[in-house]
Write a structure and sequence with these properties.
With 407 residues, this protein is α/β, with parallel strands linked by helices. The protein is 41% helix and 15% strand. The chain contains 17 helices and 12 strands. A 7-stranded mixed sheet has the order 6-5-4-1-2-3-12, with helices on both faces. The chain has a 3-stranded antiparallel sheet with strand order 7-8-9. A two-stranded antiparallel ribbon has the order 10-11.
């Protein structure tokens, strides 16, 4: 469900995988006309799992490309490349993670001086990197271990892909604003590794390593610098409890009737658990007191008690359990709507998470079949006639939705 803030802005997206498509999705959800250009039959990410079935549509691709227009074109042919160049110059906006020499800013900006081109890279030198290989360099998989001898623990959240995507969208909007003010174009280069390492700096991790000259010890499921851990109830349910603020800590201790025992542990260890870092230092002893409390009670009893004392907690759930049981996810939340996607059927879909008072969201649209808007875009933006468009079809330079392998 898009907002109207970028209406009138058309952006050509030539991309694959997560960062650039997700950035394009965000821009589309703010109202931009995002034109995704793919190879005829689909690019390297078009059949990526999860899929409806062995030969079905990719739920990955259709989720990332909802609300965009789709063009199918044969990148290998010079005339196809010329068409894409002309589209970029006419719209004045390009979002890509492809290192195609014919899409270089220095070439295209000669024809469109106020061109905005956002190029998402792996490393600043233009070399490639993947989410998993980049994350291994950040130290986070080492921090997620329970101890120094354990193997690194990878996250299933592609954090650097996602953060890069939203930084790219933010940078693009900033460049659009500058063009409105000064008429200047922009070449934006955004490297995933720069995003990852700058984030580490902003969170103090690099400063810690630099100033203190040491690596942070593994924390497992603990919250670093405060108290927080996962616990298991008598009926095998698992939940996460956080006590970062003094109020959260007091609520947790009172909830579990552990005031006396906590005071005794503080005296034994010489720690003051009113200080969050000292709670972290004493986490093993604290967990030793809390674990029996959770294990001796059913989840229902624990949940009722935690809520009664306003403890900060959350249950570990799967995506299916979240969809079935969490009131925050569903059509009662205006973030979500039901879409009908070709080859997928009816499904829930989210718009942009930001909420603007007094501004209505427009109904969203599903991801199209490849090439659904090829003719429409060429006519509307480049002014090609029906005869010219038919010739391009006959030459195999462009294709419509009938060429989609999932149609």
């Amino acid at each position: 469900m898009p907002y109207p803030f970028l209406q009138g802005i058309s952006i050509v997206e030539s991309s694959a995988f997560v960062p650039a498509p997700l950035a394009g999705l965000a821009l589309a959800q703010f109202g931009a006309d995002v034109i995704r250009i793919d190879a005829i039959g689909g690019g390297i990410d078009y059949r990526r799992a999860p899929r409806m079935n062995a030969n079905g549509r990719s739920l990955f691709w259709t989720s990332l490309n909802a609300g965009k227009r789709s063009m199918a074109i044969d990148f290998r042919k010079p005339e196809a490349r010329e068409l894409i160049q002309e589209l970029v110059c006419q719209t004045g906006n390009l979002l890509t993670n492809r290192a195609a020499p014919w899409l270089k800013y220095c070439t295209l900006s000669e024809r469109r001086p106020d061109l905005i081109s956002c190029v998402i890279e792996g490393n600043p030198d233009g070399s490639s990197v993947m989410e998993c290989t980049l994350n291994s360099a950040t130290g986070f998989p080492l921090l997620a271990r329970d101890n120094l001898q354990a193997r690194p623990v990878n996250s299933q959240l592609p954090a650097w892909d996602v953060i890069t995507a939203y930084q790219a969208a933010f940078a693009f909007v900033g460049a659009i604003n500058r063009r409105i003010v000064s008429g200047e174009g922009a070449l934006i280069k955004l490297a995933m590794s720069d995003v990852a390492f700058s984030t580490m700096s902003h969170l103090g991790l690099l400063t810690e390593a630099d100033v203190l000259g040491r690596d942070r010890a593994p924390v497992g499921n603990n919250i670093y610098g405060a108290f927080g851990r996962d616990f298991e109830t008598a009926d095998g349910q698992r939940l996460m409890v956080a006590a970062i603020t003094s109020g959260q800590w007091s609520s947790l201790v009172a909830c579990c009737d552990l005031e006396l025992q906590i005071a005794q542990v503080e005296a034994q260890l010489g720690l003051d658990f009113s200080d969050e870092m000292q709670r972290y230092e004493g986490r093993v002893a604290i967990v030793g007191l809390l674990e029996p409390w959770f294990r001796s009670r059913s989840f229902a009893v624990v949940a009722e008690r935690l809520d009664q004392y306003q403890v900060s907690w959350g249950k570990y759930t799967s995506a299916k359990q979240l969809l079935d049981n969490d009131s925050r996810v569903g059509i009662n939340n205006p973030l979500f709507e039901i879409l009908e996607t070709a080859g997928v059927g009816r499904h829930i879909s989210a718009g942009i998470a930001a909420r603007f008072d007094g501004v209505d969201r427009a109904p969203g649209s599903a991801a199209p079949l490849l090439g659904t808007h090829t003719d429409e875009v060429l006519h509307e933006i480049l002014g090609l006639s029906g005869i010219e468009i038919a010739r391009l079809h006959d030459s195999g330079i462009i294709a419509g939705p009938d060429a989609d392998p999932c149609s």
